[in-house]
Amino acid sequence: MKMLVLPLLITLLQSPLCLSVTVSSSKPKVEVHEHTDAVLACEFRTEKDQNPRIEWKKKGKGVTFVYFNHKFTGSYAGRAKMEGATLTIHSVTQKDSGEYRCEVTAGEDHVNLGEATVTLNVLVPPHVPSCEVPSSVFVGSGLELHCKDKLSVPPATYRWYKDNKALTATADTPYSVDPNKGALKFTSVSKTDSGMYRCESSNSVGAPKSCVAQKLKVIEYPLNMTILIAGAAGFLSLVLFCCICVCVCQRRGCCKKDKKTKSTKSFNPPPPPPPPIRNIKHYKPAHSFMI
C-alpha cells in the first residue's frame, strides 16, 4: 500500500496545477478624512501570465475608468499612483466617495479575469450651517427656526443657543428642539423669547461649527392693528348673528305671508267676457222729396 501512495504523491507534485487568476482586497471598506490620501488595496495571483492587464473602475450612475491602458483618466490624472494593483488617490474629496472595482486580466490563464470591489467613504467635518432666524415676530405667534449643514459626512447633529446658552427642551419649556433636523419650534412666543440666537452643527469627524448669532425681537401688536382685528371680529360676529336670525325665521314660518302675497300677485285672472251686442234700429226719414 505504501509503495502505491508514494508514486502517486510524486506524480501530483510534478504535474502542473490548473489555477486561474485570483483577485482580492485586504481592506474592502476604506474610510478617510477629506483632503487626505486613500489607499485602495488590490492583490492578485496568476497561473502563468506574468504581466496581466490591470484596470480600476468606479461605479456610479454609470461606470467610469480610473486607471486604463497604464495611465489614469479624468480627474484622477496627476493625483493618483499605482503600486502593483493597489491604487492610491491623493487629497480625496467627497466626490471621490463610492464603489471601486479592481480588474485583473491574465490572457494566458485558464480563467483569465478576476476582480475585487473596494468601497471608499470620504469623511467631511462640519461646515458653517445656514441659520434662519426672523428679525421680529408678534407676541403669541407660532415660530420655527431652521439650521442646516448639507456638506458634513456623516450628517451633522444640531444644537441651538440663545444668548450663548444652550437650549435644552423639557416638559416646562415653551419650545421643542429636533437635533437631527436642526429645528427649534415655539408654539406661542412671548417677550422673554427675545434674544440672540445661533445654531451649531457637529459630527464625529471634526470640530463643531456655528453660524453668526442673529437677533430675534418679540413685539406687541400695534394699536391700529389691534383696532383693525377687533373691528374685523365684530363685523364677522354681526354677519354670523344675522345669518342665525334668518335661519330661525325660516324655520318658524316668518316668511309664509310674504310667499302667499307673492303668489297672489303673480296670479293673473282671465279677462271678463265682452258686453252683449244690442240691436241697432234703422230710422227712415219723415219726408221724402221727389226731384
From TrEMBL:
InterPro entries: Ig-like_dom, Ig-like_dom_sf, Ig-like_fold, Ig_sub, Ig_sub2, Ig_V-set, JAM2. One of its GO terms (cellular component) is plasma membrane. The keyword Transmembrane helix applies. This is Ig-like domain-containing protein. The lineage of its organism: Eukaryota, Metazoa, Chordata, Craniata, Vertebrata. The keyword Membrane applies. The chain crosses the membrane at residues 225-249. Residues 1-20 form the signal peptide. Residues 16-119, 126-217 form the Ig-like domain. Coiled coil: none annotated. It comes from Perca fluviatilis (European perch). Keywords: Membrane, Signal, Transmembrane, Transmembrane helix.
